[in-house]
Known about the structure:
The protein has no helices and 20 strands. The radius of gyration is 21 Å and the shape is flat.
Amino acid sequence: CQARVVTNFDEQLGPVSAKTDAQGAFALGPLAPGTYELVASAGYKADNLLANSLPLRVTAGDSNVTLTLRSGCSVAGRVVDAAERSAVQADVTLSQVGGDLTLRASTSKSGQFQFGALEPGVYDLVAITPGGGCAVLAGLRLDAGQSANALELAVEPGGRLRVNYDGSAESAKIRIEHDGVCIAWDNVTNGGARDWLVPAGKNLVLCTEGSGTQALRREVAIPAGQLTEVHCGATEPKR
Length: 239
């Protein structure tokens, strides 16, 4: 099976990767002496049911190393307007609950989306349309070898949320959650602001400064079709 093999960070060269040949053979180098962690990935193609290998620790110069891709999962579906049930174009984000994996894809003109090569686990999906429509699907459990290929994300009118930061740090990490699902996150520099399209209703705004100090944790009611503004830092009392 063809795949890409990637090492962890090399101080001199950075991450080093190589594509296998048709028989799955690979060679990485040159590498500085030391210990490395290897992972093989067949990529996140929509029709791929092979998940990444488990990390394998090796020493520079080792040979006859074998990495085994695991049985994975895939999801597919379409995004529709909740009222008219017609297909709409959107940006879809898939996040692994309790993991680091986040994938993004734009739908086709017919609202179709696909994600493949996923590890078994629990996933959240969020769809955002250019016009401000939002849909959230939480807690989708996928088992090894499973294809959930008939999902439907029905978008409803959302609102806009603007977060301003003027605290004591150079920047702050902003995270927006809706019903426990992460909708968006980004860094906002001091004196700056960031706008997001978010679902209407209650959203949780978390603002963490560079030192790791949580400067704001607030539940905000977002009206559909309107802009709601939140301040984090000196102008916003901590709660």
